[in-house]
Amino acid sequence: MDYSDLSRQLMQAVHYIHKNKPKINVNEVVQGSPFILQYLSKRKEAVLPSEISDKMEISTARIAVILNSLDKKGLINREINKNDRRQILVTLTAEGEEAAKKLVQEAEYHIIQMLQNLGEHDAGEFVRILNKLAGITGKSS
Fold first, then answer.
1. Using CB atoms within 10 A of its CB, is residue 59 exposed (0-12), middle (13-18) or buried (19+)?
2. What angle do CA 86, 59, 105 make, to 5 degrees?
3. DSSP character for 92?
4. Contact, 33 vs 66, CB < 8 A?
5. What confidence tier does 135 reach under pLDDT thresholds 50, 70, 90?
6. What angle do CA 76, 110, 7 make, to 5 degrees?
7. What percent of the chain has pLDDT over 70?
8. How far is CA 87 from CA 42, 51, 79, 82, 107, in A?
9. Domains of the chain
């Protein structure tokens, strides 16, 4: 097998996809504000900014900037921890919960469209190969 040729074909395909701007950028859904909204929505409890920082593997300073933006938009609440007044706890507002749901629904819709365009067999293979590249084994939820 000529991996050099496959490498060029892959780079060309990725370039073409990037150039034609897919309706959804999956990276945007799993980074920054969208990630934080989804993470808080799944947790269903107050979270420390440092926990978000650890989960996202980005600095607490960057998290603070994102949280400030979400706070200004009315999507999160920040409260002082009653058990340790040095800590700030973050939760979603009702608007934040709605925004998180909308993000997930929009992402799912566009990903489903993409997978349907591949067809059942190729979609399954695509996900299987991505999981292999990511080091994920088996099915996860």
1. exposed
2. 100
3. E
4. yes
5. confident
6. 110
7. 89
8. 21, 12, 8, 9, 33
9. 23-134 (1.10.10.10)
Contact criterion met (CB below 8 Å) for 138 and 127: no
* Contact assessment for residue 100 and residue 19, using Cβ atoms and an 8 Å cutoff: no
Residue with tokens 């365009």: 117
73-103 pLDDT, tens digit per residue, is: 999 999 999 999 999 999 999 999 999 999 8
The pair of structure tokens assigned to 109 is: 């819709």
Backbone angles phi, psi at 118, to 5 degrees: -75, -30
Report the chain's mean pLDDT, rounded to a whole number: 87
Say how far apart CA 46 and CA 78 lie, in whole Å: 9
CA gap 74, 135 in Å, rounded: 37
Q: How confident is the model at residue 141 (pLDDT cuts 50, 70, 90)?
A: very low
When comparing pLDDT for 139 and 20, which is higher?
20
Q: What is the pTM of this model?
A: 0.72
Largest CA distance in the chain: 62
